[in-house]
Amino acid sequence: MPTAVGFDLDMTLIDTRAGIAAVYDALADETGVLIDSAVATSRLGPPLEWELAHWFPVEDVPAMADRYRALYPSLAIDGTLAMPGAREALAAVRSQGDRVVVVTAKYAPNAQAHLDHLGLDVDALVGSHHGPAKGEALVAHGAGTYVGDHPDDVRGARAAGAVMVGVATGASDEQALREAGADVVLADLTAFPVWWSVYRPGTAAG
After folding, report:
1. pLDDT tier at 61 (50, 70, 90 boundaries)?
2. Per-residue model confidence as pLDDT tens digits over 141-187
3. Are both 54 and 145 inside the same structural domain?
4. Which run of H or E residues covers position 152?
5. Is residue 206 situated within a structural domain?
6. CA 196, CA 49: separation in Å to the nearest integer?
7. Are 171 and 43 within 8 A, CB to CB?
8. How far is the C-alpha of 58 from the C-alpha of 175, rounded, in Å?
9. Mean pLDDT throughout 54-59?
10. What pLDDT score was predicted for residue 203?
11. SS3 label, residue 155
């Protein structure tokens, strides 16, 4: 039976740092509130509202999140790049007849805009899911493996009983991902196709 593989988005499949920094800088200009975009983009992974709470009073966060999401399509999409090995990783999953599911904390319409712009073809996208909530989406889509760059991605995989593949391309290095409980840690997605060809459930090695 075909299996599904889940992937995180920011700093796993795509490098969104430059675009996200541009959105934070625009939001700072509009509001007059100091936002250190370099600091903000150094801790991508958790929900947007968590980051905004570092810069705005809690009562202002919902409105600022709405404004951020409105600014995002015009400022963040064009400057985003696919991570090294991202296309090959998706192709490796597809070559085995398996499905690709993106599960991300990002607002789904903006996540889809990234995928469309970069031509990254996936079978399903689930947005606004973070940490253990990612596990619900993985279970719903039959994903027995999840690939991500953040310890909260590990918690999502654990909630689903999925194999967690960490990639050290975000803020967490290989040691941090291992300590968080990742089953496998790769330097980046360029190593994923070979790993998947050996591990994939249903193969002799897997």
Report:
1. very high
2. 999 999 999 999 999 999 999 999 999 999 999 999 999 999 999 99
3. no
4. helix 151-160
5. no
6. 34
7. yes
8. 33
9. 98
10. 55
11. helix
Backbone Cα Rg of the chain: 17
pLDDT digits (tens, 9 = 90+) for 118-142: 999 999 999 999 999 999 999 999 9
Supply 153's token pair: 């991605």
Residue 137: C-alpha distances to residues 56, 126, 167 (Å): 30, 7, 20
Identify any residues that bridge with 126 across adjacent strands, giving them in sequence order: 103
* 190/204 Cα distance (integer angstroms): 23
Domain-embedded: residue 21: yes
Residue 11 contacts by C-beta under 8 Å, 6 or more apart in sequence? 17, 44, 45, 83, 149, 150, 169, 170, 171
DSSP state of 10: B
pLDDT reported for residue 11: 98
Check whether residue 65 and residue 93 sit in a common domain.
no
- As a whole number of angstroms, the distance between CA 99 and CA 138 comes to 12
Residues 66 and 141 in one domain: no
